[in-house]
Amino acid sequence: MFIKYLKKGRKLLNDSYYQEGQKQNHAELLKLPARTEIINFLLSLSTGSKCYLEVGVRNPDDNYNHIVADQKYSVDPGVEFKANPVDFKVTSDEFFELL
């Protein structure tokens, strides 16, 4: 069974789409100012109570946990992590159908 998963993992790591996605993700993380800084700046421009919705959280430590807002809501089905501390554990399509 272990060999089966090892082969699948190697296949994924050698997949050209996966490799390109990893490159693009790395390039995105190197951009300045960071997405979190931009969001916090825009939120700071508004007066009164600040409300923030993040769709597609994945790892909350990457962005969501660093956003400064009075109310924060999160949407993610939790495919990437077993621990999924979001408010709405559904896909974005399912979430917007709820509205």
> Would you tell me the structural class of the helices and strands?
mainly alpha
Biggest β-sheet: count, sense, barrel? Answer: 2 strands, parallel
Rg over C-alpha atoms, rounded to the nearest angstrom: 17 Å
As a percent range, the share of helical residues equals 40-55%
Pattern of helices and strands: HHHEEH
The tally of beta strands, per DSSP, is 2
Q: What is the typical, i.e. mean, pLDDT?
A: 90
The first-to-last residue Cα distance is 43 Å
Strand order of the largest sheet: 1-2
Write the layout of secondary structure elements.
Blueprint: H1 2-14, H2 16-30, H3 35-45, E1 51-55, E2 71-75, H4 92-98
Parallel strand pairs: 1-2
Q: What would you note in describing this structure?
A:
With 99 residues, the protein is mostly helical. It has a domain of 52 residues. It contains four helices and two strands, in the order αααββα. Strands 1-2 form a two-stranded parallel ribbon.
What is this entry, summarized?
This protein is mainly alpha-helical.
Salient structural properties:
single chain; 99 residues; mainly alpha; 2 strands; 46% helix; extended
